[in-house]
């Protein structure tokens, strides 16, 4: 067994373990952290397949943005986990039925597939990230720019929707500070002395 296969089996085992822990963990923060571990393991297997772009996108987009946002939402909201799990047993039979249905569909799809003839992929002198960049900025330049404009409009719309009315800001007036009098700031109070015991 080569070292690449050993590394693949290691990351595949970690990926399966993390995926199982995502759905079995009782704490949603722990489930999110196991999902981060699953994403890292999937990115490592993609690196073994020489799909560097997909691995980097998976880490940057899902781990760096989506999961951090999910963790912030889960940690900021006070979620009552016990109340969420109250009706779990009631829907267990429906969940098992849907799981078995998906399993039957997957078995039928895999059985009907014919095994493709495996041929070696042509080796290109250009790395895959450079090839994706060349295709993205030549053939698909207009859809790429359109997607960028849509994302920019969505970001501006999200900012506009979350902005509230302007708050009352406190400004310093230097002329009022310079022209202050002692009587405006200090008040002398005459208190009678307390008798000693």
Average residue-wise pLDDT: 81
SS-derived structural category: mainly alpha
| Count of discrete alpha- or pi-helical segments spanning 4 or more residues | 9
Calculate the terminal CA-CA distance, rounded to whole Å.
Answer: 95 Å
Mind telling me the CATH class of the domain at 1-79?
Mainly Alpha
**What composes the largest sheet?**
none
Helix content: 55-70%
Reported by name, the CATH topology of the domain at 1-79 is Four Helix Bundle (Hemerythrin (Met), subunit A)
Number of strands: 0
Shape: elongated
Round the Cα radius of gyration to an integer and report it: 31 Å
What order do the SSEs take from the amino end to the carboxyl end, as H and E? HHHHHHHHH
Counting copies of identical and different chains, the oligomeric state is: single chain
CATH superfamily of the domain at 1-79: NADH-ubiquinone/plastoquinone oxidoreductase chain 6, subunit NuoJ
Strand residues, percent: under 5%
CATH architecture annotation name of the domain at 1-79: Up-down Bundle
Uncertain stretches of 5 or more adjacent residues:
none
Q: What features would you describe in this structure?
A:
The protein is mostly helical and 197 residues long. It has a domain of 79 residues: Up-down Bundle (Four Helix Bundle (Hemerythrin (Met), subunit A)), CATH 1.20.120.1200. Helix 2 packs antiparallel against helix 3. The protein starts with a helix and ends in a 12-residue tail after the last helix. The mean pLDDT is 81.
């Amino acid at each position: 067994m080569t070292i690449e296969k050993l590394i693949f089996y290691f990351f595949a085992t970690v990926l399966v373990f993390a995926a199982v822990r995502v759905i079995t963990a009782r704490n949603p923060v722990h489930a999110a952290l196991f999902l981060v571990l699953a994403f890292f393991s999937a990115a490592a297997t993609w690196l073994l397949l020489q799909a560097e772009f997909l691995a980097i996108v998976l880490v940057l987009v899902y781990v760096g943005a989506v999961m951090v946002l999910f963790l912030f939402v889960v940690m900021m909201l006070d979620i009552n986990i016990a109340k969420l799990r109250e009706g779990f047993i009631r829907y267990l039979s429906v969940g098992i039925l849907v799981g078995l249905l998906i399993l039957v569909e997957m078995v039928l799809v895999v059985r009907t597939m014919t095994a493709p003839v495996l041929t070696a992929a042509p080796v290109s002198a250009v790395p895959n990230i450079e090839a994706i960049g060349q295709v993205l900025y030549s053939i698909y330049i207009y859809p790429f720019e359109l997607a960028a404009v849509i994302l920019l409009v969505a970001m501006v719309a999200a900012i506009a929707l979350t902005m509230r009315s302007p708050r009352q800001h406190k400004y310093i007036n230097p002329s009022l500070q310079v022209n202050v009098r002692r009587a405006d700031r200090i008040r002398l109070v005459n208190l009678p002395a307390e008798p000693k015991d």
